[in-house]
Amino acid sequence: MERHRKLAAGNWKMNGLSDHLGEIAALIGSHGDATCEILICPPATLVAPMAAHAGSRIAVGGQDCHAEANGAHTGDISAEMLRDAGATYVITGHSERRADHGESDEAVRAKTEAGWKAGLVVILCIGETLDQREAGETLSVIDGQLAGSVPEGATGDNLVIAYEPVWAIGTGKVPSVEQIAEVHDHIRKTLSERFGTGTADAVRLLYGGSVKPGNASEIFAVDNVDGALVGGASLKADDFGGIISALEG
Ligand code: PEP
C-alpha cells in the first residue's frame, strides 16, 4: 500500500471565533495548491462553517468524539455529527484530553473505532511525559499506548499516528532529531509487527510539539516523519503557511 501525501495538521484547541475563519481564506490564498495535504481541526462550533469555507483544498477535522453515535451524553459530540458537519478527520487521544478528562487507552480505542465507523480518518495521539522520558520509559509508554489504543483494522486510509511528547506541547521545548527519529522508527516497527509492513508503511506518522516555521525543516528531514500536528502555530495563516512550505521541501 502506498503512503498518502504528507500531512500538515493544525489543532486550534479551544481557540477561534467565526471571525478567525479569515485565516482559512488567507491560507487558501497562499497555500491552496500545496502538494501536501492540509487539515485544520477547529473547535466544534467552527467545523461546519470552516468546511464550507475550505471547499476541497483544506480538510477539516474534529478534536475529539464520543465513542457512541448518539444518546444521552450532554455536551459531547459524535463522530457521525462531525462527519455530518463536513469533517473528514478526527483527533483522538490528545494528551490534553487524556489529562483533563482522564481518557484511558481503552476510551481512546473506542473513540477511534467510532471515528472509523463514521468514515473519518483518525489522528491518534501518543507520547510520554517528562517524568517518563527521564525514567527511560519512553518506548515502553509508546508500546503500551499503541497496544491499548490502536484498534484492529488499522490501515493507511483510516489511521494517522501523532507522536506528541507531552513535555513538548505548548512549551517551546522540542526533542532532538535523534529522539524524534528513535520514537518514529519504533512506532513504524511496532505497527509493522502487528499489521504487516504494507500497512505500517502506509500509516502516516506525524510529529507534534512546538513545531514552528523555524524548526519545521529540521524535523521534516527526519526519517519516518510524514508531517506534523501543530497547535499554537496553526492559528495564524502566516505561521502555518511557513510550516506547510517546509513540509513541501
Ligand atoms: C498540539 O496541541 O497537538 C500541539 C502540538 O501543540 P503545540 O504545537 O502548540 O505545541
Topology readout:
Blueprint lengths: L6 E5 L10 H10 L5 E5 L5 H8 L4 E4 L16 H6 L4 E4 L2 H6 L4 H13 L3 E6 L3 H5 L3 H12 L9 E5 L13 H19 L1 H6 L1 E5 L4 H8 L6 E4 L6 H12 L1
Parallel strand pairs: 1-2, 1-8, 2-3, 3-4, 4-5, 5-6, 6-7, 7-8
The site of phosphoenolpyruvate has 13 residues, from strand 8.
Would you write up a description of this structure?
There is one protein chain. The chain is an alpha/beta fold and 249 residues long. The chain has a single domain (7-248), classed as TIM Barrel (Alpha-Beta Barrel). The protein is built from 11 helices and 8 strands. The chain has helices at 22-31, 47-54, 79-84, 95-100, 105-117, 130-134, 138-149, 177-195, 197-202, 213-220, 237-248, and strands at residues 7-11, 37-41, 59-62, 89-92, 121-126, 159-163, 204-208, 227-230. The protein has an 8-stranded parallel barrel, surrounded by 5 helices. It starts with 6 loop residues before the first strand and ends with a helix.
Class, according to the CATH hierarchy?
Answer: Alpha Beta
Q: What is the count of DSSP helices, taking H or I runs of 4+ residues?
A: 11
On the 0 to 100 scale, the average pLDDT is 96
The strand count comes to 8
Hetero ligands = phosphoenolpyruvate
Tell me the series of helices and strands, N- to C-terminal. Answer: EHEHEHEHHEHHEHHEHEH
As for the CATH topology, it is: TIM Barrel
End-to-end separation in angstroms reads 23 Å
Total number of domains: 1
Helix content: 40-55%
- CATH H level, superfamily name: Aldolase class I
Strand order of the largest sheet: 1-2-3-4-5-6-7-8
Q: What portion of residues belong to β-strands?
A: 15-25%
Q: Using only CA atoms, what is the Rg?
A: 17 Å
The main pleated sheet reads as: 8 strands, parallel, barrel
Name the shape in a single word. globular
